[in-house]
Each structure stands twice: as C-alpha cells, then as structure tokens.
Amino acid sequence: MVLPNQRHERGVAEATLRRLPLYHRHLKTLLESGVTSVSCPQIAGELALDPTQIRKDLETTGVTGRPKVGYVLADLIAHIEHFLGWDNAKEAFLVGAGSLGAALLGYMRFEEHGMSIVAAFDHDDAKVGTLIRGKHVLAIDKLPDLARRMHVYMGIITVPASGAQDVAELMVKGGIRAIWNFAPIRLRLPNHTIVHNEDLYCSLASLSQKLAASMSTETGV
Amino acid sequence: MVLPNQRHERGVAEATLRRLPLYHRHLKTLLESGVTSVSCPQIAGELALDPTQIRKDLETTGVTGRPKVGYVLADLIAHIEHFLGWDNAKEAFLVGAGSLGAALLGYMRFEEHGMSIVAAFDHDDAKVGTLIRGKHVLAIDKLPDLARRMHVYMGIITVPASGAQDVAELMVKGGIRAIWNFAPIRLRLPNHTIVHNEDLYCSLASLSQKLAASMSTETGV
DNA sequence: TAGATTGTTAATCGATTAACAATC
DNA sequence: TAGATTGTTAATCGATTAACAATC
Prior knowledge:
Chain A is an alpha/beta fold and about 220 residues long. Helix content of chain A is about 45%, strand content about 15%. In chain A, helix 1 runs antiparallel to helix 4. At the A-B interface, helix 1, helix 5 and helix 8 of A face helix 1, helix 5 and helix 8 of B.
C-alpha cells in the first residue's frame, strides 16, 4: 500500500497540458487585437471547445477570474506561461544535426515556449565545428561535461533509432533530466528522467488507420 | 437522441492506435531474430507494459491467438499492418518544402507505415520545378487538380501557421480527406475531413511543464 | 493432467461533462 | 435587481486494470 506523500504532488493531466498552449496562442492573438478580458464561454465559442473543460484547465494554472466578467487577459496569459515554465526558458542541447535536427534548430519561437536550443551535437566530423542555423555543432563526447558545466537540463534527440539509446545515456550522464525524443524507439532510462516521445510513425498510425477505415466503409456516398 | 447506426462503427481509442505501432516495431525485431510465436505476457515484459492492455489492443485488430501458445508472430504483424492500413500505402502530397518539409520528404519508411509521399508543393517559384530528396516540387495551385486526377487522399502541411488554412482548403478542394498538419494552428475544415495535428509547441508544453515542476520541487536531493 | 494464456466480463480509475450555488 | 460567469461538487463516460472461465 502506498501512503499519500505530500511531496509527490498529483501530476497534471496530459490532455490539459496539451490544451493550455492552444488557449495561450488564442489569448495572445486576442491581446494583440486590444482585448483586455475574456471569459470561458467566449474562448469556448472561438475554439469550438467545452467551456467547463476550459475552466477546469485554467484552474490548474492557479488563475482566478471574476464572475460575470471573466479573466484579466494579461493575467491569464501570464499564469499559463508561468505554469508551463515558459516564462523561464530552459537551455537545451540537440543531438543529431541531420535534416530534422536542422529544422528544429531553425525553429523560431522555442524561446517563447520554454526552451532555448544553445548548441547542437553530432558524431559526424564533417559537421563538427560548423554552424547550422547559427548554432555551433560540437562533438558528441563533449556533451556530458558541457551539460554539467552549463547547467543544461533539457535534451533533444534527432538521431536515427539505432543511436538514440546511447545518446540518451550520455545525456543522463551529463545531468540532463528532460528528453524530447524524436527517434522511433522506446528509451530505457532511470525513472527520474522525463521523456517525451515524438514518434512520427506512431502519430501517423492514427491518421492512416482512420483514412483506411473511411476508404473501406464507403461504398457509394 | 441519436439512434445507433450500423454504418457508424465505433471509433478505435486513440491510445490504442498509438500503441499498436510500438508492438509492431517490437514484433518486427522479434521476427528478424527468428521467433515464430509470441504471447502478451512476453511482449508486456519486454516493453514494460500491461499484458491485459496489450491483449485488448491486439483484439481490436481482429487477430486471434491460442491459449498457452500465444499468437503466430507473422499473423499478428500482418493483422496490425492491415488494421492500420499499412499494407496498402496511401499516396500523399506534402505542401511546404521548407526545412521540416524537406526532412519529411527524406524520411525513409513512410511507405512501410501506410503513406507514400509522391510530390511536394511550394509557393516559392525558386523551388518549383526542382527536386528535393528526389521528389518533384510543384506549384501550389496545381494541387487540387492533381489530387483529383491522381486520386491522392492524404496531405501533409508543413507551411508556416499563416498559410496553413489556405493550404488545407486547397487540399479539401482537391478531394483530400486526411491531413497531417504540422503548422501550429487549428484548421477549420468540413467535419468529414480527418485532421491530425502535430503541434510541436503543444507537445513541448508537457515536457517543459514537467521539467519546470521538477526543478521547483527539489530543495535538497 | 497441470499450467499457462487467451478471450471476455466486471471493477476501478481518471477525465470529461453536467449541475448548481456563490458572486460580481 | 437580473443575468452571466466563476468556482466547485456530482454524474457520466470511456479507458485501464483486474478477475475468471475456456482452452490448448
């Protein structure tokens, strides 16, 4: 039997974490258009979602609103950004300067979303020492030391599946705690490491199944 | 009140659709190593998942096994591939030949996962007419006609958010039914269109929140 | 046969949705 | 005040997990 542990705060629902950025993006556009306050039913109408669900989601960020009025827009945005850690961007190392890695290195606006890629790593000597999208490419074996010295806690893996486990272990060795893994493989890491898998094949599966189902169901239309 | 409709088959759980590729990948490696049959408890042990959940997931593909023995490996793989539509790869058009688009064009093995990218589209005249990763880049306005003539039903959007809605509407106009959207924006499309959003900012949110939470919780360790 | 695993039904759990009092 | 919206509690829904009979 597991005793309740005060330290071990109840994790936030994954679904909520994935909806908050949606609200955030919409609220930012509202802010730009000069709006100063907003209500859940309003957001719900504009995003075609359920107002109660939105209220529950916003509640997790700790923001409070006023009946009849709604929320102060700037306040709401600030709460979401703080809750997601976006107001304090974490530096990240990216490993695997291939085409996908290069694309991510060039992604603008990760800074506004809690992450700043400060360097890339690759095992290819031809790439080491060069700049890709303005970011230095370093040799992989430098990673653990550098991560520790620079206090980098976030890593992105964009190497092929075959090399991902080794890269992940180097990251953990360097004290990295959160890994965004784009390699199509399940990493085996210590439990305290936070891993988010961005497995495109898994993602594609739901789309292809639904399309296949829709193609086979139709007989006439 | 909604009457039960035999045509409208109950949708498969999204979570199941996302786990099937995991099993598939693992089973393929088992197949390569010469294994011919496999049981749920075995898979569960190797992937650190629950055996009952795996059995339920496999059940949705329609495969049947034998008590005590398990499933015939080749049979199981074939059922997953058929269920996901991977045994009959759909042709796809990709719009937005930027760095992310180019990375996807170069992705090997989409063919084994139900999708074959046959051409790319871009509004940049400098790119139109060239080859990227061996795929022709065409002018965007050619898309609807070509999609209809070639019977292409799947589209991938890798343009910036500002252009995504227009691209999506062109796709729908061309008869495309399933869209894999990498642009960070919610598309407004007819209900019959299947959309899968691959919003990296939303995805990053869960990772950054968990990291931020873990950084703030620790006082000593 | 004994034992392990499938197939299936029931129980649990968590997230979504509904209901409603408090309040501005 | 009347009406709309928040905050919160209860009900519903669906997915996960457990239980167990059938079977090889």
